[in-house]
Amino acid sequence: MKRLVLVLFAAAAALFGQETIVQLDPAQTNVQFTLSDILHTVHGGFKLKRGFVRYDFATGKASGEIVIDAQSGQSGSEARDKRMHRNILESDRYPEIVFLPDRVEGVLSKASLHGNFRIHGQDHEMTMLVQAVPNAGNMNVEAQFVIPYVQWGMKNPSTLFLRVGDKVNIDVHSVAHLQTTPDPPSSGR
């Protein structure tokens, strides 16, 4: 029943041209990465600093920011993490990874969110697939995207004996709070 109410709430907001804000909860957000190599797959994660997306499905416009703490990245290997921070991400120099959405297509339960992805000091256009499911008055938000880090100018950590992929898969799992903005007052004309 709660799912139906939230879906209807979001649909009504879209129909009436209201903006909806999805506020991500950093304490309930996991940003996970997967990097393949010949012998095994490397898994790790980052922490969300802050994030919100403001969107209007009626117009397709979106805004906001999602900020990841680049220095929080961990893969479970201290030596590998030092190399990742020092040689690939250069996280002392570029401490944040930022997504700035500009448009959205689809519906709340399954959408494509397009925007500007800033990593390693460079901006790249990106579209991520996002799914949102109501849960106890909030939304469970899932997003997936791929970062072609080598194509984007970052170093490939492969060595003579260790070969890794040139793309990193990212999965975001978050709990978000949903609200609509009030309609602007009419001018009375």
Low-confidence stretches: 1-16, 183-189
Mean pLDDT across every amino acid position: 86
Q: Give me the number of helical elements.
A: 2
Helix content: 10-25%
Cα-atom radius of gyration: 19 Å
Task: Write down the CATH class.
Answer: Mainly Beta
Q: Please name the fourth-level CATH homologous superfamily.
A: Lipid/polyisoprenoid-binding, YceI-like
Q: Calculate the terminal CA-CA distance, rounded to whole Å.
A: 41 Å
Q: Can you summarize the main beta sheet?
A: 8 strands, antiparallel, barrel
Label the overall shape: elongated
Number of strands: 8
- Helix/strand/pairing class, anyone? mainly beta
Strand line-up of the largest beta sheet: 1-2-3-4-5-6-7-8
Which CATH architecture? Beta Barrel
How much of the sequence is in beta strands?
over 45%
List the helices and strands and how they pair.
Layout: H1 2-15, E1 20-36, E2 41-56, E3 61-74, H2 78-89, E4 96-107, E5 110-119, E6 122-135, E7 138-147, E8 168-180
Antiparallel strand pairs: 1-2, 1-8, 2-3, 3-4, 4-5, 5-6, 6-7, 7-8
Characteristic terms for this protein:
single chain, 189 residues, mainly beta, Lipocalin, eight-stranded antiparallel barrel, 2 helices, 8 strands, 14% helix, elongated, disordered N terminus, disordered C terminus
